[in-house]
Design brief:
24 strands; six-stranded antiparallel beta barrel; 38% strand; 4 helices; 372 residues; alpha+beta; six-stranded mixed β-sheet
Length: 372
């Protein structure tokens, strides 16, 4: 008799069948429990870690600006008229008093002639008034005239003197206007802009030239507001020509605009150039570099950076329990191949740099290739 036949006969017995069924069910239950226990046994995840080591980092900011004159003036005619001559071009160096342009002086010359004639007429009237007054003065002393006539003569003299003074003042004004038909340089410098041509009619006070005066020079930069968030090491700036980096100079920030430019959203910064080289001419493009204060930061590979909600974070490993925890951090800067942590990590902490994508809080890990 085979074992299979024997089992079939046992199962056919009613009482025995019940006992066998109960035994089979218990065995199945025990087997399921063993499988589940085997499946829920935690397995340590294999990761690679590094020890957080701080380093001193001194960042620098470099921007491009332009060399400009410390003092710049917009020149214009004080009278209006038609331009008959222009004697300079942009880039011309001029000395104080040099003639830049001329207007047609016909109108102003006519005004001078009219004022001269008015002065001559007023002088003649004054001579007559003086003679009349002197005669009345002699007559009243002898009693041959009345006080009223004497007073009228005196008043005529004073009126004639006033008319002469007004005529002379008008002559001076006309002569000044005639002189203003010639535009002259107010100081030694370089013409940086021109807004007139021969034959053009220009109104009074309209800027026609820009003059950059000789002397001190500034490097002018348009800086984004975010650049002012960091603390610089000093107000000193290293300057170098963009076209020739070997031409260098040192400058110091002397002026920061209190307002932001509405179009470019930048702030204008002026840096005074100390002993500018001859090659740093007006309009030259210069690169200005300023250093920020040194900061303690921890450099980690990009693979170490995770997220805790919307904030950056890293996985750290407890050296005693060998379990992980997600720690929010503050990123100071992003560089090629690494991220710089400026807050949130303490020196000596062990950070997961590889294998952190599938980790969860409190998970046991096995470290591979620990390094410090």
């Amino acid at each position: 008799m085979t074992i299979q036949t024997h089992l079939i006969r046992i199962v056919r017995t009613p009482n025995t069948a019940k006992r066998v069924a109960a035994a089979v069910l218990a065995s199945i239950a025990l087997a399921g429990c063993n499988d589940r226990a085997a499946q829920t046994t935690p397995r340590a995840t294999l990761v690679r870690t590094v020890i957080a080591q701080p380093r001193e980092r001194q960042a620098s900011l470099t921007l491009t600006g332009e060399v400009q004159a410390r003092f710049r003036a917009d020149l214009s005619f004080r009278v209006g008229g038609r331009v008959v001559a222009r004697d300079v071009e942009v880039g011309t160096h001029v000395n104080k008093g040099f003639v830049l342009a001329r207007l047609d002086p016909a109108e102003q010359a006519a005004d001078v002639d009219a004022a001269t004639a008015a002065v001559a007429s007023a002088e003649a009237q004054l001579r007559v008034a003086k003679a009349t007054f002197e005669r009345q003065k002699a007559l009243i002393a002898s009693g041959f005239t009345t006080r009223t006539v004497y007073d009228q003569a005196e008043e005529g003299l004073r009126t004639a003197e006033g008319v002469l003074d007004a005529a002379r003042a008008q002559l001076g004004t006309s002569q000044d206007a005639l002189g203003h038909t010639v535009l002259r340089a107010e100081a030694d410098g370089v013409i940086t802009a021109r807004n007139l041509e021969v034959g053009q009619v220009v109104p009074a006070a309209q800027p026609v030239f820009s003059l950059a005066q000789d002397g001190e020079r500034d490097a002018v930069f348009d800086v984004y507001e975010s650049a002012f968030l960091g603390q610089t090491d000093s107000r000193r700036v290293r300057l170098a020509l963009v076209s020739d980096p070997n031409v260098t100079a040192t400058g110091e920030v002397r002026e920061i605009s209190p307002v932001i430019d509405a179009k470019s959203s930048t702030i204008r910064v002026k840096v005074s150039i100390e002993n500018p080289p001859a090659a740093m001419t007006l309009g030259s493009a210069v690169a200005g570099t300023v250093k920020a204060k040194a900061q303690q930061e921890i450099a980690l590979p990009w693979s170490a950076l995770m997220a805790a909600g919307r904030k950056p974070a890293v996985w750290t490993v407890d050296p005693k329990t060998r379990t992980t925890s997600l720690k929010p951090v503050t990123v100071g800067a992003y560089e090629a191949g690494q991220v710089l942590i400026k807050a949130g990590l303490e020196p000596g902490e062990r950070v997961v740099v590889d294998g952190g994508k599938l980790l969860s809080a409190g998970q046991a890990v096995t470290e591979e290739g620990d390094r410090s």
